[in-house]
Amino acid sequence: MDTILYGIEHKIRDGVRLTKEEGLALFNSNDLAWLGQLADIARKKISGEYVYYNVNRHINLTNICTARCKFCAFGCDVDSAQAYTMTKEKALALAKQSAQDPDLRELHIVSGLHPEWPFEFYLDVIRSLKEELPHIHLKAFTSVEISYFAKISGKSTEQVLRDLIAAGIDSMPGGGAEILSDRVREQLCPKKATAGEWLSIARQAHKLGLRTNASMLYGHIETFEERIDHLIALRELQDETGGFQTFICFPFHPANTELENKITRTSVWDDLKTMAISRVMLDNFKNIKAYWIMLTLPIAQLALGFGANDIDGTVSEEKIVHAAGAKSSRSLSKDMLINSIRQAGRIPVERDSKYNIIKVL
Ligand code: SF4
Q1: What is the distance in A from the centroid of ligand 1 to the CA of 68?
Q2: What residue segments make up the domains of the chain, in order of their start?
Q3: Ligand 1 centroid, distance to 126 Cα (angstroms)
Q4: How many CB atoms are closer than 10 A to CB 4?
Q5: What is the largest CA-CA distance in the chain?
Q6: Which atom of ligand 1 lies at the shortest distance from residue 74's CA?
Q7: Which of 65, 80, 142, 179 to mutate to test the pocket of ligand 1 (most atoms within 8 A of CB)?
Q8: Could you tell me the distance, in angstroms and rounded to a whole number, from the CA of residue 223 to the centre of ligand 1?
């Protein structure tokens, strides 16, 4: 093993933060078993033996989107055959139907950037959901959506956040971060929030007391250096605010996107490497999520040995990744999640959206 890698192992064992150069050296290493070992050391120190899951439902109000990012198979134009919109009543009906399960704790609400809906519509949906289902946590709207709401309402992003908090959102999902590099965003998603805007909205949300999450979409045109810069930008913001709850890394799914014939799906090798490196770089993130929808359940289970301590939720019913041909199910039962965690030799823990423990199994 060369000196830099040897030094990295010592730093992780001693709980010392890794530099950008060390993160890059890890991406240049292909000793996957060793990377898994390093991630496991960090995971044990930071998160222990528990693996979290929750019972949640996704609601995507529309897939019509003005941004039309090149990596997205979900967003479409208003006249597309796939286009759909949901009324407030429909969203309420879906939420109430899911809430018949007494274990449901969270609604995860993200949508396309609709060209005509006013900001008031989103406030109205949130107010109604909160009124009808006050016990359900509303994890709603990415920083990209907040930036868009500011544009269509003429309000500042801070005021948009204040209005949404007053209406009833409890936290924000981590989507829309993609790769926090202006080079990548200009090529793939020039119409949505820039890297600086994404970070600034997360910072504002944290300052207003809203917990948020962070993600990374990798495996398209980004370099390893951009992946590391992305992780370091999140780590620096977490140092400043402590407001991120979990980090999720998503592999890019090319099917049905503009990049379909140009880029192939990442290898499992890359997925596990990226998971492990994220765990060791993000030393101030308590939780690293292996999102089974993106990874498939077998890879998510394997990722538990590469730094992950959260496997996400029952989900019903996922639309965004399945638009890109994901082969995973659209939802899973609690028993399937629990068994997958147990088979990996870890302790399943049902959590709420703020990582309070509901049940240790
Ligand atoms: S990733 Fe989000 S913003 Fe981009 S096209 Fe898809 S739905 Fe729209």
Answers
A1: 6
A2: 3-360
A3: 21
A4: 15
A5: 61
A6: 6
A7: 65
A8: 21
Looking at residue 294, its pLDDT comes to 86
Q: For 306-331, how does the pLDDT look when each residue is reduced to its tens digit (9 = 90+)?
A: 999 999 878 776 666 667 666 666 67
Window from 33-37, 99-103, 122-126, 203-207 with minimum mean pLDDT: 99-103
Name every residue whose Cβ is closer than 8 Å to that of residue 68 and which is 6 or more positions away in sequence: 75, 76, 77, 191
> Which residues line the pocket of ligand 1, CB cutoff 6 A?
65, 67-69, 72, 74-75, 112-113, 144, 189, 192
* Residue from 59, 85, 113 whose mutation best tests the ligand 1 pocket (most atoms within 8 A of CB): 113
Query: Which atom of ligand 1 lies at the shortest distance from residue 66's CA?
Result: 8
Once rounded to an integer, what is the mean pLDDT over residues 172-183?
A: 97
> What is the predicted pLDDT for the residue at 200?
98
Residue 329 has a pLDDT of 64
Distance CA 335, CA 314 (A): 10
Nearest CA to ligand 1 atom 4: 69
Render the burial of 330-340: b for 16+ CB within 10 Å, e for the rest: ebbebeebbeb
Altogether, the residues listed in the chain come to a count of 361
**CATH ID of 3-360, from 3.30.497.10, 3.40.630.30, 3.90.1150.10, 3.20.20.70:** 3.20.20.70
Mean pLDDT of 178-196: 97
Q: How far is the CA of 87 from the centre of ligand 1 (A)?
A: 20
Cα(343) to centroid(ligand 1), Å:
35
The string of DSSP codes covering 25-45 is HHHT---HHHHHHHHHHHHHH
Q: Which two tokens stand for residue 106?
A: 């969270």
pLDDT of residue 151: 98
CA 248 vs. chain centroid, Å, equals 4
- Whose Cα sits closest to atom 1 in ligand 1? 72
Beta strand spans in 55-136 (E): 56-59, 106-109
* Greater model confidence, 108 or 327: 108
Amino acid letter at 17? Answer: R
What is the predicted pLDDT for the residue at 317? 64
